[in-house]
Amino acid sequence: MDAIEERKVYRLVLTGGPCGGKTTGQSRLCTFFENLGWKVFRVPETATILLSGGIKFADLVADEVFKFQENLLRTMIQIENTYFELGRTSTKNCLIICDRGFMDASAYISKEKWDRMMRSNHWNPVELRDNRYNQIIHMVSAANGAEEFYATEEHSCRSEGVTLARELDYKSASAWIGHPYFDVIDNSTDFENKVNRMIECVCQKLGIDIGDRLSITSRKVKFLVSGPMPPDSSFPAYQDFEVVHNYLQCAGPRVQARLRKRGQNDRWSYIHTIRRPQQHGQSIEVRTQLSHRDYLNMLTQKDDAHLPIFKKRRCFLVNNQYFQMDIYKEPSHPRCKGLILLETYTSLTGDKLKNILPTFLNIAKEVTGQPDYSMFNLSLREDWNNTKKFCYSLDDLDDGDVKTNGHSKKIINGTA
User: Fold this and answer.
1) Do 327 and 243 form a contact (C-beta atoms < 8 A)?
2) For the chain, how long is the longest CA-to-CA vector?
3) CA separation for the pair 373, 339 (Å, rounded)
4) Contact of 152 with 198, CB cutoff 8 Å
5) Cis status of the peptide bond prior to 236, with omega within 30 of 0
6) Distance between CA 70 and CA 77 in Å, rounded?
């Protein structure tokens, strides 16, 4: 019984623009996890199944396109549910790779028609984007940064030119903006390393120690943003969320536990996170998705030494780089007033790192690893000069960052 409770079922969407390496990446990812002893299911791309039957978008009128997309999503949900159910009954750790996911269809239809489709089918796009899948990985099209490798000859359902491919790449990435675990794999390296970065990204989120099989390429970097905020029109496509963090009472002196409530349009997801002391040189972070009832029950265990943290989180893409910007709000501790922090994952440093940052924001300085900007410390009720709870160690970084061999590594276990 214990073995069943401890196993993982991980629902991953592998998406991307045309000629982004999705097919090859899926095959390599499958082999990698099968070699680790996992059961791997590959959910086929619903659009490819339907389009291979002779359907051509260019031949469809507007109403036919709408009904096609609607039926595509209904079919996709049913196919995915079949694999998800198999995953739940598997006796092994199970990785379910979805070749594209629900939100990808929004890249091929107008917002007005998409909203109408959601209403008529009683679909909640926030729920289907944020809670249906554990992680989204977008493989950037070769048409954006590796144009010499962009080709359509070997794909029977692909006919996009470079310009259209870039447009579709951006639209499909934008469709997933706001998912709590969304990663973009660009063309900044050769293709072999691109695929390795993708596999590494999945392993990091799952908390799998990959040793020297793949190089650790990315780390989380954090920047302080000075106000005032630019107008919303200065941003590319974005998603805003309300986020509330509460720290909980813990049994051990170096254990940290917190609850996160994250919502949009009065739809919420709930996460319980526990950070444990180092084991074998690595800090372990366990994240578990909660029901609303479980969240309320656990909220009774909140630690009175910490005040709740309230934020508005804005998620957006700039130059194929995914950013999260946290705007701290009242009634957080007064020390949080006016605080704006920008975060991203990258392997770049120095001037190359500066060049990818949004130019429309007034970035004051990098604050990666600085304890004054740790959420744990920011939430402390007492004055920092009068408390023994202030965390100075780099091992106490927020959101699962662990300093190992000069790299910041995300450790997430217990996903189901």
Assistant:
1) no
2) 71
3) 9
4) no
5) no
6) 11
Tokens of 413: 């276990």
Q: Is 25 left (phi over 0), alpha (psi -120 to 50) or beta?
A: alpha
At 98, list the tokens.
């979805």
- Span 319-358, pLDDT tens digits: 778 899 999 999 999 999 999 999 988 878 889 899 999 9
pTM metric for this prediction: 0.68
At which residue do the structure tokens 């996009």 appear? Answer: 160
CA 68 to chain centre: 28
User: What single string gives the DSSP state of each residue in 149-198?
Assistant: G---TT-TT----HHHHHHHHHHHHHTTTT-TTEEEE-SSS-HHHHHHHH
Contact 275, 374 (CB under 8 A): no
3-state helix, strand, coil in the chain (%, to 5): 35, 30, 35
Distances (CA, A) of 183 to 238, 316, 400: 15, 12, 16
Q: How would DSSP label each residue in 92-124?
A: S-EEEEEES-GGGGGGGS-HHHHHHHHHHTT--
Report angle CA 68, 176, 25 to the nearest 5 degrees. Answer: 85
